[in-house]
Amino acid sequence: MKLWLIATELARRPRRTLTGVISVALGVAIFLGLQAYGAGYRAAAREPLSLIGSDVVAQRQGDRPASFENVVFPHSTSPVHVEEVERVRAVPGVEAVAAAMFFWSFQDEELLVGLGIDTTTDVGPNKLAAGVTQGRFLTPGDHDVAVLDNSYAEQHKITLGDRISVAGSPFEVIGTVDTSRAGQVANANVYLPLADSQRLVEASPGVRSVHDIRPGDVNVLFVRANPARGPAVADDIKALLGSEAIVTTPQSFDQVLGPSFVIIDRFGLIIGFVALLLAAASLLRVVLSTLRQRRRDIAVLRAVGWTRSSLRAQLVGESVALTFVGLASGLLLSLITVWLLSQTSVSIPIPWELSPTPHFVANGAKQLAIDVPLRSTLELLSIGLVLAIGLLAAVTAGLAASRRAARIKPSEVWRVD
Amino acid sequence: MSTELLRATGLRKRFGGVVAVDSIDLHINEAEFVAIVGRSGSGKSTLLNLIAGLDLPDEGEIRFAGELLRANDEDALADWRAEHVGLVFQAFHLIPTLSALDNAAVPLLPRRSTEAARAAARERLDQVGLGNRVTHRPAQLSGGEQQRVAIARALVGNPKLLLADEPTGNLDTKTGKEILDLFARLRADTGTATVLITHDENVAAAADRRISIQDGKVLAEAGEGK
């Protein structure tokens, strides 16, 4: 096989070569582009939980509060007892658990959303430490101190060192934080040490009247899991918390991303494969039609002593070279597509139960969402698959052409001419 | 005494109901110039295709240097042609996408390095007077020049037998004469046995031996080495 002869043949038949290259390039670009788009969406869907350092958020559906006074639980939560937390910690694949206490406090004719945070782990809302805008975040050993959401502090003109009242208890403000950095999950106006929030909740008649609240109870669990066991961990936790469990995983966001993602997620691979198959068919057509044009040349080669194996090497080489240029062009097109996609962002809706707000307050029913850049990437597996399919198609087309070429008899070609 | 290079015995070939070659016996000696003469449709081109192993006979056999050609093995025949036979055609049959140099090098490409094949081709192109046209493609050459490239291609592997089918058929008289002179000169230089198919008695007159064919049969044979 002579590479220069292959290059000469491809270069001297530019229309056919271009048709083959474009077909392969488009097939590759469609396949890789769709996979990258899907992967970008899937990565975006994981963003809300990854921003808060969790793979699973678990809570248990509760009852509506008897009245919206003082401290109550949102009805998307109910107590998770200490022993249940321990059982969750023991689930195979669970690497860390951050317990939290989410509550609403109705005071002075307004709503204050509070979150008690376990400061002993870097999982869950402790990630907010990275979003501190003034002062500091909560640390282990803190009590009677609070960190406020930026906008809440601004709205109420609260500054560092001020004392605020939560359900009648005073807390010193030690910091403010940009909560939008936590993916809009477990958004609160005020963040307290977990023990302080447990004290407020346990003392609240509004909670006690509805729930079996015990010392040490929490109502939200942020879980970091071994990626390989993520779905199994979610299933196990769901089983542990019972039929009322609300377990949010990255896959939960897939369902709220809308029909376009569902179509891409479900059919992207099929559409991509169809595009690749069409490209392979087009390649075969180009190679065989080129062979028809070259019948006389093939006859000459046979007449002057080229064996079938020499012809096969030449034709397979031409087919592989054509495909290689197509694959490279397709890869380049895919990279451009990925870059264009990365210039866009996707809005990820946050399920209400992850940041519950009463519907009757201003903006309470508003759908929270975060805008995430569509970080599409070309996956090595997809590229490998495309290369393998491309090489297979090229060799198949080359072999099909060489089989036909082997049947070309010089004397017959010249008799017809 | 001449050494026999090729012997065909009882060659017969039919296409449908037409017998194109009918029980022909012939031999070619080393360095001999044989003309096979006949009208159009007499079976002379079919006979040449059979001798070259491009067509398989329905009956009969061909021996080259005493060895029986393996008629059922196309690759063995291709190897044999590459090693021992040069072919020249009326329509030149050059590959349009290749330069004169690469066209002349084509028979050697599967068996030698590109450099070696091109070096041999360049030598042959010099020999046929086209040393200054090596980069030209067939479409950029005249008919006579194209036929010279085809002759260079036929001789590039130093064959023992050159088979030429109406090599002057597509050329004007003057160019045709130049090509025949070239054949004569090359044969004198290389000692290659030459079988030339022609319908032109004047062309055949230059041969050592003349075999006349009609309706697929040898009508007459004349000349030295008969």
From TrEMBL, chain A:
Q: Does the keyword Membrane apply?
A: yes
Main subcellular localization, coarse class? Answer: membrane
Q: Where is the MacB-like periplasmic core domain?
A: 21-239
- What is the membrane topology noted in the UniProt record heading this document? Multi-pass membrane protein
Subcellular location per UniProt equals: Cell membrane
Q: Where is the ABC3 transporter permease C-terminal domain?
A: 270-410
Q: Which Pfam families match?
A: FtsX, MacB_PCD
Question: What keywords does the record list, in alphabetical order?
Answer: Cell membrane, Membrane, Transmembrane, Transmembrane helix
Could you list the residue ranges that cross the membrane? 21-40, 267-288, 320-341, 380-401
Family to which this protein belongs: Belongs to the ABC-4 integral membrane protein family.
Q: What is this protein called?
A: ABC transporter permease
Origin organism of this chain? Answer: Actinokineospora xionganensis
From TrEMBL, chain B:
Keywords, ordered alphabetically: ATP-binding, Nucleotide-binding, Transport
InterPro entries assigned to the protein according to its UniProt record, in alphabetical order: AAA+_ATPase, ABC_transporter-like_ATP-bd, ABC_transporter-like_CS, ABC_transpr_LolD-like, MacB-like_ATP-bd, P-loop_NTPase
What the entry lists under Pfam families is as follows: ABC_tran
A molecular function (GO) held by this record is:
ATP binding
Q: In the UniProt record, does the keyword ATP-binding occur?
A: yes
Q: Give the superkingdom in one word.
A: Bacteria
Alphabetical list of Gene3D superfamilies matching this protein: P-loop containing nucleotide triphosphate hydrolases
Q: Which residues form the ABC transporter domain?
A: 6-226
Tell me if Nucleotide-binding is a UniProt keyword of this record: yes
Task: Tell me the first and last residues of the signal peptide.
Answer: none
Protein name as catalogued: ABC transporter ATP-binding protein
UniProt source species:
Actinokineospora xionganensis
Q: What is the lineage of its organism?
A: Bacteria, Bacillati, Actinomycetota, Actinomycetes, Pseudonocardiales
